[in-house]
Structure formats: C-alpha cells, structure tokens
Amino acid sequence: MVAEERNFTRAAQRLHISQPPLTRQIRQLESELGVTLFLRHRTGVELTPEGRALLDKARTVSTAVADFENWARLVKAPRTKGVAVGVSWGLWEAVNRIRAHHSRRFPDVSITAHDICQEPNGPFHQQPIDVVVQRPPVDTAFVSERLFEERFVAIIGDTHPLASRSAVTLAELVHEPLLLFDRRLGPGVYDKTLALCEAASVKPLVVEGQPLPYTQQAMMLVASRQGFYLGIASQFTQTHRASGVAVVPLHEPGASLDIRIAWRRNESSRQIREFVRSARDVFPPERVATTGRPPRQGIRREPRPTSDPPCDR
Length: 313
Fold this sequence. Notes:
The chain is of the alpha/beta class. It has 9 helices and 11 strands.
C-alpha cells in the first residue's frame, strides 16, 4: 500500500489506521530484513532498488496467503454434495419416487438427472453420475440391486388383428417383421428379445438397424404395419402407447427384465449411500432378490453383479 501511494499518510488512510503505527511497522520490517525499503523525503517516499526487487515477491506471498485463507474457510464451512442420477429411458416415474422420498429425508441435498445411453464406457465414465437406475447388464466395476420388474410387450399397429388381445405370443407374431435397434443402445432388451424368440422356437424376420421403439420414427413404422417391436413396460415405466399403436402384453415364460439401481464399487460417500437407502425405502429389498455388493456401513453384502456397461435406454 505504501509503495502504491508513495505516502505514509495516504497509505494509512486506505488501511484505516493512523500513520504512526504504519511507519513503525515499516521500520520494523526493514530492521528484520536488514534492507532499506523506502527512501523518505519531504513530499513522500519512494522504493529503493532493493524495495522494488522485493515488491513482486511480497505481492506473490500476499496472494498465496489470501488463497490459503480462502481455502481454509471452504474446508471449515459445511458443504452438501448433490447426487447425480443417471436415468435409462422410461424410468423417470421410478426415479421421481426415489427423489421425492430422498428430498423429504434430506431437503438440502440437490439431485440432478442425466439421460443415459447404453454404449461402451458409458455414463459413469463420461458423465458426472453417482448412481444410475437402469436395465441390465451392469458393469463389473459397479454393484447393483433390483428395484422392480418390467414385463415385455408387443408393440403393433392398432389395426392389427391382434391389437385387441389381452396378451399375445411370439408364435402368433412369427409372420410379422421384428424391428430391432442397434444393440449398443440397449443390449439388455436386445439380447432378451432374441433369447425369448429362441426359447419359443420362433424365427421371425428380423429387421436390424431400426430406430428405438419409443421414437416417432418407430411409431410410424408400427402404425403403418411395417413390423412390430418388443418393448418393456411396468407401472413405473413410461409406456409406448401412442395413436396408431397398440401395446399388448407378451405371454412368454421369462418375458421380463429387472430394473436395477447401481453405484460404484467401494463407494464411500454418505450422500450416495443414503440415496441408495432411499431407493430401498421406496422399493423394499425384502420383496425382491438383490445382486451386487452395496455400500459400506451396514448395507448388506450380496453376490457379484453382471458385466456390461451400466447404461441402457
């Protein structure tokens, strides 16, 4: 301050102290350093060559001290970390139930949602996601628990002869083209679709590379009777229902998929553990089988999960 003002009186005014104490502090500093910092004259002061050489160092030290003090305040201050939730397609209703319950338990915790797609090195690797609600498979780097079950449905045009049925079998659809999307976008649904066909000894005409079954492109294909999809549905899942489309339950053994909540193995964050607890409150685990090793501190340990990337639309 003295170097900027080149005057002890003006510098003292900016520092909100009187001039004599400031003068004494400068003299004491010069004595400790063994260096004359200022040349005094009648109209003010000016830096000596030694004073100019030390000024930049003094500013660097001052900035470092200020940064240290700010960091110390941040460390001392209580901080609440939010929870970032990855959500597979159609599962908002389930996630929102967990969110509402968790917000009642921890009203100050922010919860953000991220749409996720099923691709290699998926949401946990590419996005700031802490926990995900998804369909299988689950990456081996993560653990998971079953929340509830989705059932497979046939998505057919509403003018199809089977559209009014209460259920339909794959054998009844064998002469219809089966529309399939890229496996990377949903390997769990894709693989299960083919497994159901094999189990039923049905070999439909498979048309690969189609749009995802909930898109407008897919609805156009179905409504215009160019084929059918196998989709999934539950009371917590957004349905495929739309004008021109009928959604009929699929009557085949094992025509279901688990919806799971997954998080990083050895997760130590209390926020994440508590979010998993909130999910268990909404979907009690005693009613369902579970897989994976949950977070520590009293959450049950269970078998190892399956092994593919943890994101699925």
